[in-house]
Automatic annotation (TrEMBL):
Domain MoaB/Mog as annotated: residue spans: 173-313
Pathway, per record: Cofactor biosynthesis; molybdopterin biosynthesis
Protein name, as recorded: Molybdopterin molybdenumtransferase
Family affiliation: Belongs to the MoeA family.
Amino acid sequence: MTLPITWADARQAVFEAGSAAAPGITPVPLVESDGLTLAEPLVTLTDLPAFPTSSVDGWAVRGDAPWRIVGRVLAGDHAIPLDSPGTCVEIATGGMVPPGTDAVIRIEESKVDGDTVLAGTARKTPDWRSRGEEAARGEELLPAGTPVTPGVIGLAASCGYDTLPCRPAPKAALLVFGDELLVAGPPGDGRVRDALGPSLPSWLRRAGTEVVHVRGPVADTLDDHIAALRSAVDAGAQVVCTTGGTMHGPVDHLHPALAALGARYVVNTVAVRPGFPMLVAKLPGGQFVAGLPGNPQSTFVALVSLVLPLLAGLTGRTLPAPGTVTLGADVPGRGDFTHLALVRMVDGRAHPVAHVGSSMLRGLASSFGFAVIPPGTQGRAGEQALVVPLPILDGERP
């Protein structure tokens, strides 16, 4: 019998396996890079800003008033120097401040007569942005492993980048095992509705994968399991998630199928409840198989416990660290196992939810994530606890 590995050790093991198998660096056009991961630090290619720019509409002046107007600088213009005291140029917001400028006077705080600015007072805080005020050329702005967001894309563009060095999004597949599953209509007569085939691809996309293959239900035979795994690999999947068949019952064929394909285990069973018969194995071709239990809540415990750390490694990100919450109610422990308890946030505190049987999805649908209750302990109201959030898009959290 395989002894379960601790939850923390399991996360670390699959993360390291993913990191060792991370694909090479690819230059990706900025408009296609959202959701990927920086494979190299983001370093400025120029000073930011690259030249001094006016932050107001007004006058760039040299010397004391009055100032003779000798030109105009709009955004995008190259500014020639102000060589003579008593001269100025009209300048627009974003315009290049001419060399030799002593101050920028706001247009609404000046007095003009014909081609002369008669008077104006510069503010104590200069009304222009100095060259390199935001960053100096060659300065590291973001480290490798940073997720690429629209904000990162905008920053990179301002630095002069046309492409970003990224690791590609892992390609994922989903295989749903089980003769008992219905793919349409209400359950009954011994058959249950497949809730994972429709939902897990969306969770995998939110976790940063490109889902390239979904198949299910796969018949409960060894030959069908082997064929399904091969079809996922042939579709180009680097991570193949399966649901069900992770135990050793009469219709559990995942372990024999992995053995037939020459896979080796990275993790095989984890001391966590619910969902301990979870696994990650690696095929001879380098693809990973994440065996998730068939009971829905256990499936999602395995998703956050093993799949998310594996994907972090494959994309060059850091191992996702659990956050911290204050418990709003007691949460029981699970003896020698780590307990991942579904919680939702109410008035800034994490409260356990109802309907959290391993086969239930009602509690999951209204949850923020899983509170982590270590082995041999209980969570007490008012105490701090680690929390693993579900991979939900911004704005979707209950």
